[in-house]
Design brief:
Length: 506
């Protein structure tokens, strides 16, 4: 016997009230009450963060409900009148527990709406032959207009002591699918969403060689780019541009690192298209990072220096971001971008015509990993606190190449070894990446400072000078920390991990 109540039943075929009542014994009858209509949407981020963390967010007209699917005590609600189907950041909701919980789960990502479900429901009671109410229930007629889906469902809650009798009646109803919750039943009506993985984990046929493997790498990341286009153009959240840009960088790295596979002319044409994309995406992404870090910037300097000058500076960043984003949007909607997409489609479909070399996959992957690991050990061992910034920058690029290679070919190796090597490399990269961020940040701030000095805007001059000084100090601290981090990365334990990947001594 069922012990989970209420019973949520979705009928496998369209049903109506008359059919429902005919299915139960004549001794029982329904007493119908009020009817109502609700418009329901479910919300989640593009990468399904809420679902992965066991949360459900839905709106019924203007009321939003967020709850943890495995903890009934964790539920929050809020009213937000202007919604429609517009993606929403956590900051769009009123300040309070709902907003804070959503921000914790979704982070900087917007929640996107599902197709709208229209629910016409009628409440009713089920009475037995003694005219006693044994259960409360709700009849639902459901439709998802965007997907041309219609269905019916019933939710039944027995009164205490009538569970067995109610279960008996439920078994007499038309064939149905039983769900654990109304929300689960409603989401089962929605079209399946396309899985999204920003960093594809690729399986290779090692007998096919490196040329098919390179094609698979490019196809997977080209797909990631295309998946992010709509959200990028809509400016729904900053991660669409980030993932779009990273996918392009990975494609460019794959072409540059895994060689010689393609005819030089084909490779050059593909690389040039990605460079062209980078000229538009790079500046917008840099400004995204600064704008997202506004609170961190403000904490970097004394309060007396974070006043009018600070607000003016971020006003300029915001205006600059708007201009550059509009330029990026225009480019992505241009004929030139469409030509780039067609170029990639054409090469990926006619791949074999452009292949000039197809070495053994395992051998080449091991050779590439060994080459770039040894180069990092060699170049990294030369760096000192007094070394020029450019040398740290070059080493960062080399570490990124190794990281891409490890991720491209991760499935060729035992996962415990790959995870350990990536973990060690990430710590090394974090130091170099933060150092580079400070270097780029200082150059950006100096450019704004020169402009402020020309305008004799002393508020901004004071703020920008303070930010430059603090950024420079942070960069120097990272330089001093580098030696210990390099020592751990180049140590015997990490060398042994790489030797297990590609064999031989390092």
């Amino acid at each position: 016997m069922n012990t989970e109540w209420p019973a949520v039943l979705l009928f496998k075929t369209a049903a109506d009230k008359a059919k429902l009542e005919k299915k139960i014994p004549s001794a029982y009858r329904f007493r119908w009450f009020h009817a109502e209509t609700a418009h329901i949407r479910f919300w989640d981020t593009f990468d399904r963060r809420l679902e992965k963390k066991k949360y459900t967010l839905y709106s019924s007209d203007h009321i939003f409900t967020l709850y943890h699917t495995e903890d009934s005590g964790r539920e929050w609600g809020v009213s937000l009148k202007k919604t429609g189907d517009t993606p929403l950041l956590a900051g769009a909701f009123p300040d309070g527990n709902f907003r804070r919980e959503l921000a914790t789960v979704a982070g900087i990502r917007a929640v996107l709406p599902s197709p709208e479900i229209v629910k016409h429901s009628s409440a009713f009671s089920i009475l037995n032959e003694d005219q006693k109410t044994i259960a409360r229930a709700s009849w639902m007629v459901l439709s998802v207009k965007e997907a041309d889906i219609s269905a019916s469902a019933v939710v039944v809650q027995p009164l205490r002591g009538y569970e067995s009798e109610t279960e008996y009646l439920i078994r007499r109803l038309p064939p149905s699918a039983r769900h654990q919750s109304v929300e689960g039943m409603l989401t089962s009506l929605l079209p399946a969403h396309e899985p999204y993985i920003s960093r594809p984990r690729l399986e290779f046929d090692v007998n096919e060689g490196m040329a098919p493997a390179l094609r698979k790498i490019l196809i997977a990341h080209f797909k990631v780019m295309r998946q992010n286009e709509r959200g990028l153009l809509g400016n729904w959240d900053t991660e669409f541009l980030h993932d779009f840009r990273v996918a392009g960088r990975r494609m460019r790295s794959a072409l540059s690192l895994i060689k010689p596979i393609l005819h030089p002319g084909a490779k050059q044409e593909l690389v040039l298209t990605l460079k062209r994309l980078g000229r538009f995406t790079g500046p917008v992404r840099d400004l995204d990072v600064y704008l997202l870090a506004r609170a961190d910037f403000e904490k970097m300097i004394p309060a007396e220096m974070a006043g009018q000058g600070f607000r003016k500076f971020f006003g300029r960043l915001t205006a600059d971001h708007r201009r550059k984003f509009l330029a990026l949007k225009a480019f992505l909607e241009s004929r030139e971008y469409q030509v780039i997409l067609n170029t990639w489609d054409g090469y990926l479909k006619s791949w074999e015509k452009h292949v000039i070399n197809d070495p053994d996959l395992r051998e080449m992957a091991a050779s590439l990993l060994k080459k770039h690991f040894k180069k990092i050990l060699k170049d990294g061992g030369r760096l000192k606190p007094s070394s020029p910034d450019e040398q740290f920058h070059d080493l960062r690029i080399e570490a990124k190449k190794l990281r891409y290679l490890l991720e491209f070919f991760s499935t060729l190796y035992p996962q415990d070894i790959i995870q350990n090597t990536v973990r060690q490399l990430k710590t090394f990269q974090d130091n170099l990446g933060a150092f580079n961020d400070y270097s780029v940040q200082i150059e950006m701030l100096r450019g704004f400072l020169q402009s402020a000095e020309k305008k004799n805007d002393q508020d901004q001059v004071k703020t920008l000078s303070a930010l430059i000084a603090v950024s420079y100090q942070g960069k120097e601290v990272l330089k001093k920390e580098y030696h210990a981090i390099y020592k751990a990365f180049s140590g015997e334990r990490n060398r042994l991990l790489y030797q297990q990947l590609f064999g031989g001594g390092v």
